[in-house]
UniProtKB/TrEMBL annotation, chain A:
DUF112 domain span: 20-442
Domain of life: Bacteria
Transmembrane segment boundaries: 20-39, 46-69, 75-95, 107-133, 139-162, 169-189, 201-222, 262-286, 325-346, 358-386, 392-410, 417-433, 473-490
Biological classification of the source: Bacteria, Pseudomonadati, Pseudomonadota, Alphaproteobacteria, Rhodobacterales
Protein source organism: Marivita hallyeonensis
Keyword annotations of the record: Membrane, Transmembrane, Transmembrane helix
Protein name (database record): Putative tricarboxylic transport membrane protein
InterPro entries linked to this entry: DUF112_TM
Automatic annotation (TrEMBL), chain B:
Family listed: Belongs to the UPF0065 (bug) family.
Keywords for the protein's UniProt record, in alphabetical order: Receptor, Signal
Organism per entry: Marivita hallyeonensis
Coiled coil: none
Keyword Signal included in the entry's annotation: yes
Keyword Signal: yes
Superkingdom classification of source: Bacteria
Descriptive protein name: Tripartite-type tricarboxylate transporter, receptor component TctC
A Pfam family the protein falls into: TctC
Signal peptide: 1-29
Length: 505, 329
């Protein structure tokens, strides 16, 4: 077992006092960065990158990975407490996390998220340890056609299983896709839908702007109207008893968490796919295989666990193409790649052979980072829950400020702040009319990816649409997508066409 | 006595501190320094040649302490760099933004009306000229340029040539190849050179024109094969790979790797960045990298650089006009 020997050597590196301290520091910083809407792992890693020269390269990459991990854990916090996903990977966590918080079960939801993240992270690190090198070939087998099929699958898990009203879901997906075409065309470079040459639109509409608008501002407007002065959130308490209950609840969800972990790891491993489709698909599968699918979206703890296992597993998975192929799977891994270049390490097929000390030190640090993250996260839950006990009048103003700052900070353009305001009002109206918002936001994230891979395939295959089903991998995904699309239709017909009247929320 | 002594010593100490402080302020007043992190906009996607190079520059700047503020690379690769060009234009007068350029710096504004005139931008420094090589996957039977031409002809126009976008450097070389050999390929655009390299090795495209730096990892792992170099002379890193010129096909093409800044950047800031890159070009790391990755280091700045940009732009306008003429015929 050569791998185990190498891993043991790696642990010798990552368990040194300096590196352990670095992991704890990085995870704590990452947790807070991830919990802030508008700040994500990208910002955290970018800010810290220049500071890493003071420590040796192996410690530096451990620090960056610890921040990356911490931020993935932290992303769930604002999704659950405020209903604002801080990153696209945490959108699915809002579906059940937010309702749980509103029912006064914020502590339980946070425990679920932390434990699920830990399970997802750990299972995927084990997979990474055992199969990193052979799996690189699978990542290579993914061309544009497969990419398209995968994104299509992510969409259909949504249409089929998302809202109660399929038509409204489709309308929102279409709207999101239209928004995603704003800006410069990916392939030809021509400006599209820039509203008479408004410079702000050239960069397109970013996920963050839309998410902060519809979830942040829109949610506040909606709550203001529905609750007037009464606090909308039942104050949450967190005790050891609750902690125990949380662990027991998690213990019943091994199937969900196992599926989420494997799915997250494999989807995250594919360059360009990443954690967002992974978390969605995990949510979709958890819901469709559940015995009580109708409780999803209304505060089912499984709806928190599934996407959180998947997005953490995916964040480990996305390190795989970065290390073995030199192709970053996400903006954050691109920064990590930059860091490695900085220390004179060239990621690519030769890295595992030429720099085993570095690689195995990094892998072993993922184990320690995972342990540190779950411990610190659970220790800090009372603090996060306490934040929710603030009077609504105070919380509301605070969230509003966070939204505006979080939207302005990345681009430093007032254009984005106006867009947030616009999306906020639109989001409020759409919510009132019972349109689900998640498909809108996710279509914006996945749309450009889908468009690009669709066009690349058609160009490469001389316009042959059948290319998608002629390739075995992409054909499998498309078949699954078709299944997901048809399944709810069959269920619907079996029920004799009775329509659920529950609000799609 | 003792009291007096200490008092005198204390006075002297205060005086010397004051002098140091005065010295420090005058040093500060001398030159402009960035007040916040410097944004390094990259005209291409992640993992490609331009991206890796920009991140290398960032690392050398940080390591050698060439800038008083951190440098943050930002990828704006959409639409063959149109996203980055437009961004630079919209940040007129900004002293904390610089952009790493490719040849799409010339071609993108010619091909699309994005309201950008590169003559308005402020030239900073040209760091190097990068080279191009024709690549196939190591699984392919193609060993020589002749094999390649024969294979393209046999495919009847379905030969998939990957690249970073129509009008980008590699697409110009591809167009030159098509013209030289009277062949037709299907050009498939990807987001960056790294993506192109991966798709070649994964077998999703048949051949590419990549910078050596983009394929080096796969080449060393025995997964891709260089066929011919588009340089006047053989590259030191691939001594057995012939140049197209040697084979009787005069195709030579360079890619400039430079830095520019927005229109009306304050002159002191321009001087600061120019000096920063000049120092960078003399570092050992940079010289090592240019040798390893087959780049030609050739520093140029100021008006000379602007003149070079304009000359190259006109050259590219001619190449593009030629390409489009062919397309319509």
């Amino acid at each position: 077992m050569e791998t185990l020997a190498l891993l043991a050597d790696g642990f010798a590196t990552s368990l040194s006092p300096l590196n352990l301290m670095i992991v704890i520091l990085g995870v704590t910083a990452g947790l807070f960065i991830g919990a802030m809407p508008g700040l994500g792992s990208v910002n955290g890693v970018a800010i810290v990158l220049p500071l890493t020269f003071i420590v040796p390269p192996s410690s530096a990459i451990i620090l960056l990975c610890a921040i990356y991990y911490g931020a993935m854990y932290g992303g769930a916090i604002s999704s659950i407490l405020l209903g604002i996903p801080g990153a696209s990977t945490a959108v699915a966590t809002t579906f059940d996390g937010r309702p749980m918080a509103q029912q006064g079960k914020a502590g339980l939801a946070l425990i679920a998220a932390a434990v699920a993240s830990f399970v997802g992270g750990t299972i995927s690190v084990v997979l990474f340890t055992l199969f990193a090198v052979p799996l690189a070939d699978l990542a290579l087998a993914f061309g544009p056609a497969e990419e398209f099929a995968l994104v299509l699958l992510a969409f259909t898990t949504f249409v089929g299983l998302g809202g109660d009203d399929v038509l409204k879901t489709i309308v929102m997906i279409c709207l999101g896709l239209v928004l995603s075409t704003v800006g410069l065309d990916l392939i030809s470079g021509s400006p599209r839908l820039v509203f008479g040459d408004l410079p702000g639109f050239y960069a397109g509409i970013s996920f963050l702007v839309l998410a902060i608008g519809v979830y942040g501002i829109g949610e506040i407007l909606y709550t203001l109207e529905t609750s007037r002065t009464a606090p909308s959130v039942t104050p949450a308490k967190i005790t050891f008893k609750e902690l125990g209950a949380g662990f027991r609840a998690m213990n019943r969800m091994w199937k969900t968490m196992g599926t989420g972990s494997f799915l997250g790891f494999f989807v995250g491993m594919l360059p360009a796919a990443g954690a967002t489709p992974a978390s969605l698909m995990a949510y979709g599968i958890a819901r469709s295989t559940s015995k009580q699918p109708e409780t999803f979206g209304k505060g089912n703890i499984e709806g928190v666990a599934a996407p959180e296992t998947a997005n953490n597993a995916a964040s480990t998975g996305s390190l795989l193409p970065m290390l073995t192929l030199g192709i970053p799977g996400s903006p954050t891994t691109a920064l990590l790649l930059g860091g490695m270049v900085m220390w004179g390490l060239m990621p690519g097929p030769m890295l595992f052979i030429e720099q085993p000390d570095f690689v195995w030190g990094l892998i072993s640090s993922l184990y320690t980072a995972n342990f540190a993250a779950v411990a610190i996260n659970i220790a800090l839950i009372p603090l996060f829950v306490w934040a929710l006990r603030m009077p609504f009048t105070v919380l509301c103003a605070l969230v509003m400020v966070l939204c505006i700052v979080g939207g302005f900070a990345p681009s430093q353009k007032m254009h984005d702040v106006w867009l947030i305001a616009g999306f906020g009002v639109a989001g409020y109206l759409l919510r009132k009319a019972d349109y689900p918002l998640a498909p809108l936001v996710l279509a914006l994230v996945l749309g450009p990816l889908m468009e690009k891979s669709f066009r690349q395939t058609l160009i490469a295959e001389q316009g042959n649409v059948l290319a998608f089903v002629e390739r075995p991998l992409s054909a499998t995904f498309i078949a699954l997508a078709a299944l997901f699309f048809v399944l709810p239709l069959v269920k619907y017909l079996r029920k004799g066409g009775r329509r659920s009247v529950a609000p799609a929320e | 006595m003792i009291y007096k002594m200490t008092r005198r010593a204390a006075l002297a100490g205060v005086a010397s501190i004051a002098m140091i402080a005065a010295g420090a302020t005058s040093a500060l007043a001398e030159g402009w320094k960035p007040q916040k992190p410097i944004e390094m906009v990259i005209m291409a996607g992640q993992g490609g040649g331009a991206d890796r190079l920009a991140r290398l520059f960032q690392s050398i700047i940080q390591k050698e302490n060439l800038a008083s503020m951190p440098v943050l690379p930002v990828n704006k690769g959409g639409g063959s760099g149109a996203e980055a060009l437009r961004y630079l234009k919209d940040n007129e007068g900004d002293a904390h933004k610089i952009m790493a350029t490719l040849n799409s710096y010339y071609t993108t504004p010619i091909r699309n009306d994005i309201g950008v005139d590169i003559e308005e931008f402020t030239p900073i420094a040209r760091m190097a000229l990068d080279t191009f090589v024709l690549w196939v996957s190591a699984d392919s039977d193609i060993q020589t340029m002749d094999d390649w031409v024969a294979a393209v002809k046999a495919s009847g126009g379905e030969w998939k040539m990957g690249g970073t976008g129509t009008g980008q450097e590699d697409s110009l070389v591809t167009a030159m190849l098509e013209k030289e050999f009277d062949i037709k390929v299907t050009y498939v655009p990807f987001k960056g050179g790294g993506d192109v390299a991966k798709n070649l090795v994964g077998g999703h495209i048949d051949s590419t024109v990549n910078n050596p730096s983009e394929q080096m990892g796969f080449y060393q792992a025995g997964k891709s094969r260089p066929i011919a170099a588009f340089t006047p002379e053989r590259l030191d890193v691939f001594p057995d790979v012939p140049t197209a010129r040697e084979l009787g096909h005069d195709i030579v093409y360079w890619m400039q790797r430079s830095f520019v800044a927005p229109k009306d950047m304050p002159a002191e800031a321009v001087a600061y960045y120019t000096e920063m890159f000049e120092k960078l070009s003399q570092t050992e790391e940079w010289q090592q990298y240019t040798t390893d990755k087959a780049l030609m280091a050739d520093f140029l700045s100021g008006d000379e650089l602007q003149a070079y940009f304009i000359e190259e732009r006109d050259k590219h306008a001619a190449i593009l006009a030629d390409m489009e003429g062919d397309g319509s015929s």
